[in-house]
Fold this protein.
Amino acid sequence: MTALTAAAAQVSAPLPFTPVPLTFQPMVVLLGGAVLGARLGMSAQVLYLALGIAGLPVFAASPMLPQGAARLLGPTGGYLMAYPIAAFVTGALAEHGLDRRYMTAVAAMTCGLGVIFTAGVLWLSRFTVPPGSLGAAIVVGFSPFIVADFAKLLIAAGVMPSLWWLVGRRQP
């Protein structure tokens, strides 16, 4: 899951009006939590962050944002630092059976996505103009991403019930 998160970061689209690129990372973080469970999902994201802090090129490519530990102090730091918590929340809900049906998997992953957006937008509000403007942070850090990220979440949520269905069919 750590490697998948790093790979998902490389599929990124920079947007001219925000320092936050559009990536597939949130989908992988949420799916990782659901597949691995709370502790392992969180651990995979902590490892991802540790690799990035160590300077490996695992974060999304950006001409404006540095690789390494400085990335966590920049405008995307809140989103990145929320990944372990989002994986934990999604994984904990999956461990309670919310990954067994599509709609409950959507609900579990929506909670995890909420963690990512909340931390990201609050952190981003430090870097918006005017500084500390939550409204401006929502405009550049939430509004451009919510539709695409929720669409990816809907796809990811279909994976877990499908896996449970396959596992159930194979049992004698």
The chain has one domain: 2-9+23-170. Residues 2-9+23-170 form a domain with the Arp2/3 complex 21 kDa subunit ARPC3 fold (CATH 1.10.1760.20). Strands lie at 12-13, 22-23. The longest strand covers residues 12-13.
